[in-house]
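We treat protein structure as text, and this decision shapes the records that our systems exchange. We quote a single record here, exactly as it is kept in our systems:
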Amino acid sequence: MVLSIPAFLPANSALLEQSLAVLKEYLPSPVPMLGVIDQNIPIPFKQMVAEAPLNHLFAEAIAEGEFDGFEGRRIRFEINGGQPGITIGFWADRLRVIDGPGEAIIRGSFAAFKTLAERRQDPDQLFFQRRLVIEGNTELGLGLKNLLDSLEWSLMPIPNSGMCYFQGT
């Protein structure tokens, strides 16, 4: 859900923070709705939306061969319960969104993935706390976790939009 901040509220106001806290507490989880939407979105649309930003974000690492060990491999990222989720593969020097299962599955809550993306907590802590779980080929999943942890990238807020974007450095 994207909430725009009214112009009369400063982005760091106490009223805004309290209002968002109340919304988080009382609004139902968006995950079931996202699961239904995810199941009805065709894979070409997911590819169009996700592949270009992922390849741009990790372009330097891909060019340096950091992803070469993942050639032909598939890893699925899932919100607890299985939906929504996305399976990512690496072929011909490109990250690709594919349809189907992954050899490894990294599963967790939306909040855990957000914490990971924002780099607010060490990835190992998220796994040790069981907020994120690797299933299937754990060696493959840990390899990707370690690679992502070693790369320079961040989740940047878009001012006054309630949305974020990834930025590689």
